[in-house]
Amino acid sequence: MTFRNTLSIKFLMATCTCLTIFFTMFNMAASMDDMLTETKTKAQTIYKVIQFVGFPEKSFSSPSQPIAVCVLGYDSFGKILDYAFKDKKVDGRALNIIRVRNFKTLKKITESYQVIYITKSLRKEVPTILAHLMGSNCLIMGESPDFCQQGGMIQLKVLAKKARFNINTTAAWQEDLKISSNLLKLATIVKTEPLISKTRN
Amino acid sequence: MKSLKDLSIKYKVMSIMMLVSGVSLLLAGGILLLVETKSFKKRYITNLSTISEIIGANSTSALLFDDKEAARTTLSALARQKTFTECGIYRPDEQLFARYVMQGHKRELPPNFRAPGTYFEGGKLIHFSSIIWKGETMGMVYICTDIGELQERVKQYAGITSTILIVALCAAVLLSLWLHRIVSSPVLQLTNVAYTIAAEQDYSIRVPLSESHDELGILVRVFNQMLEQIQERDSALQNARDELEVKVEERAKEIREMSQMLKGIITNMPVVAFRINDKGEFTEAIGKGLQRLGLRSGEVVDQSAYNIYPNLATYMDNAKAGTMTFCEVTGVHDGEHWCFSSYFFPDDDRPGHIVGFALDITERKRAEGHEKILQDQLIRAERMRSLGVLAGGVAHDLNNILGSMLMLPELIKDDVQKEIGEGNENLAESMKDLSTIESSARRASAIIKDLMTLGRRGKYQKVPMSLNVVTQKYTKSHEFEALKKQFPHINITKRLSRKISFTNASESHFTRVISNLVRNACEAIPESKGVVRMQTSNITLKEPLIGYETIPAGKYVLFSVSDNGAGIAARHFEKIFEPFFTKKKITGRSGSGLGLSVVHGVVKDHDGYLNVTSVPDKGTNFQLYFPTTEATAEDEKELVKEALRGGAESILVVDDEVSQRQLAKRSLETMGYTVTTAENGHDALEKIGDVKNEISSFDLVILDMIMEDDFDGLTTYEHILEKCPGQKVIIASGYAPTRRSQAAVDLGAVWLAKPYDSSELASAVRSKLDETA
Hints:
heterodimer; A: Rossmann fold; eight-stranded mixed beta sheet; two-stranded antiparallel ribbon; elongated; B: alpha+beta; Beta-Lactamase; five-stranded antiparallel beta sheet
């Protein structure tokens, strides 16, 4: 083996290494970008979904009362959600974000909130949380699999960079929330048994 | 094509009804169609807008959540409506979000973006609408629909409208057919009546009165009233017109008659009627008088009168100035002179124009000339008659003297001849002297006879005779033979017509005429060979012959004597028949100047005419025209025979001249008569003596007319008639007839001119004796 051959192999190996590193870095960046896009999409979707939901009057104490959006669990949105809600209003109401790390903290919160988004970090506590929130007239959204089957109202998911969601109309009906048909026709309807009996008006 | 105003009112009403109905229906249909189309469009647009809004509303979430599939699902619902051909949902940045295209339709998206609204474009209806959700524009909906339905709807409406129109028009026609009578029937009746009245002029016809009280009813009533007025007026007018027509007819008849009269005058009268315009040109020239001028009717029209008749310019100018003028115009055409009396009048109706006429006075002028000739002839005849009377008076006395000179030499010669026969030769010389005396006496007698003939004009005994016979007798006479001996160098011929007509004539006088003419002709021929021709012929003049004198038309016996002698000078032509006019001193006998005067007198006494033509140095032709009579040749023979026949009757000759008495006695006795003589009237009455049964012993008495002053022939005759009313008497006289001699003739006597010869005496005697009582 000649020096030249040795040099070439080294160069080739270095090149491959560099390429490997490059591609790895590229993939990582792409993955990061995808995650960011997904987060952004979810943040925007939360805002959009809120617009298609009719809250009962009792959810607000006053007409100008902002809509309190509680992010329960690990907040993967970060500032993205803030950016998404910034200067936005739904039916004349501003959007306030409340970040709650866990269920315990949630229990302690006395102030009212109209939307609760349960992140994937609390997927195991979803049934408990849903039970707790029963009768709160809150719009309960989540991103964990089978969220709706577990009794959640709206499960967000991003497919091909586009937001898709499942809606449990039974859960929404139980909480007196009116979800727009426009939203419903975009969603996958999931029906579960009502947790409590309710007379439909 | 007929215009509406020319149509019958029936069709006019129908047309108007149909027109109004059609226009109304068309307008209604059109407006309905417009309204419906507009409404349909509005609905269409509203519907489209609604659909668009629905699509927009249903697409909000899809847009918001970028769910194209959901948007397509929403749009796919449009497939149920076949009118939507295309539909699209756009993002606010005009990027197509979702689309729908009707199956089988060509994809045309994306269209040009427009502001929200509805647009008709290329047979399509396009609608743009914004998708607004919660005050935010989410995007845009574009929807396109085919307006075929709209067009179909319009067609449908148009069809319905047309159908309604046709049905309505049919209904209108039917209705108008039924309803037009209300209006048109009275009008048509009115029209028919008006037509009938106009065609038949019968104003008694009336339009049937309608019960309606509308304008037509009023019109009919007023029309009928008007007809009544017209009828009354027409009746009055008709009467007036009838009267006028009668007057016009009368006037027209008068004008026609006047026109015919004028036409007849102009056509038959020798007149030229003419008009001359202000330029001096003839505008009309008609009339029979144009023939005289050698012009045809209208030939001079358009020709200047001033050029044709420049010498009439003054007269025409005066007439133009307003003064009637007159002049006589003369000229020559074809060698014949003409003369017109022309009158020029100003035309009152046309200033500067002239009307006039010209009367042909050529014949009058000629007649005036001829009248002058006749007057000259009359004067000449009177002069000749006066001369004849004068000559006759002288001749009577000479005749009585010559009577014995003529007769005694014959008697003496008989005695001398007896003496010579008995041997007395010394008397032979006396015999020659007696012959000379006798010859001279005869010549004197001839002259005296001419004079007597002139003086005895018109009282000849004329009988029907043939001039051929007389001429032949003359050519066999002693006188003719003597004449030929006297003019041996002259060939005297005769050419007599075989079938000559008879004429009443005195033979002795006519013989004298022949003798005079032939002698005159011979004496006119100088000492060279010449020809004298006697000729007779029948001639018929269809028109008067203007010659030496004018000979009327009629049938004549023509006797002519022509010669090739010296002729007659023109200056002497008028005087040749005057007594004692002569230019010939050839013979002793010639130059008496009585020959042609006798000819003239005899011809005139025979109601005949004379014509003389003469060319100096060429000769002269005397033509005598005697009127014919109906007698025949048998009559002539009989007359000649009778003239020579004598008898055994007893005759008393009464004459105060012894010689005349003896001569008559001898001649009559020679003829076989028993003759008694008486020297005067008293003697005659004694000789007759007493009579029995008013019948004397004499069958005939020959009385001399001029005897003793107080007892002439007429007185003797009257006394004889007292005794013997049926006594036959001959009155003989050497004088011209007088009232007394005429009275004797009226009493029944026969006139016998003296001197007479034996044949004349025999003829007269026989004629009277054979006369029945």
